[in-house]
Amino acid sequence: MTILVVEDEIKIVRFIKKGLEMEHYTVEAAYDGEEALAKAEVNNYDLIILDVMLPKLDGITVCQRLRAAKVETPIIILTARDTVDDRIKGLDAGADDYLQKPFAFGELVARIRALLRREKTVKATKLQLADLILDPATHEIRRGGKEIRLSSKEYRLLDYMMRRPGQVCTRTMIGEHIWGYNFTEDSNVIDVYISYLRRKVDQGFANKLIHTIRDVGYKIQDKSPAKNFPRPERKNYPN
Q1: Which residues, renumbered to this chain, carry the PTM 4-aspartylphosphate (predicted)?
Q2: What is the rounded distance in angstroms from the CA atom of residue 137 to the CA atom of residue 147?
Q3: CA distances from 101 to 31, 96, 106, 108, 143 (A)
């Protein structure tokens, strides 16, 4: 499950991101309203946590524009204000839930779970490429019917790439998504984790799914040739 956190206070983003990752969610961040719109209209998130007070575009406007663009992703609005009028504005804008700051992290997680339970069709959708299957609901990964066990970061990396089959994932994209502000361009941590994934996902299979794009990044793609079925034997019948 991938969650977009939209919040301009870096400390709050780090707090939410760290906690949700411990709950096995994949987390992306946006720090202003315009960035949130750009990401939410392009990427397929399972849930959005949206602060009201944002630079460039406020959270209420972001919520309204997403709903106008037919983005139906569940939205939890965060705000330091908790008047009845504020709650009404948020819910009327299309939000699914409302949480006042400061909040207990356990309550946020409980609200996330409640909203995601409503999204049964989203949770039931499995990601599949060739014979590799990833189930976001259970975090189960199988290839050729055999279960694959991954660490938290390995899972998040595979989930990120499988949601973008055939698309080049640059080192910057991967680094910012998985490691956030801790990622530095000169680090080899991405290469190390790609190596871990290859060993667990591709080793022992003739059809390799994880591919290197030299000097750019990586992509996951099924490059196996289409099966060539033999033509039926031609028989010569007597005239």
Answers
A1: 51
A2: 15
A3: 17, 17, 13, 11, 43
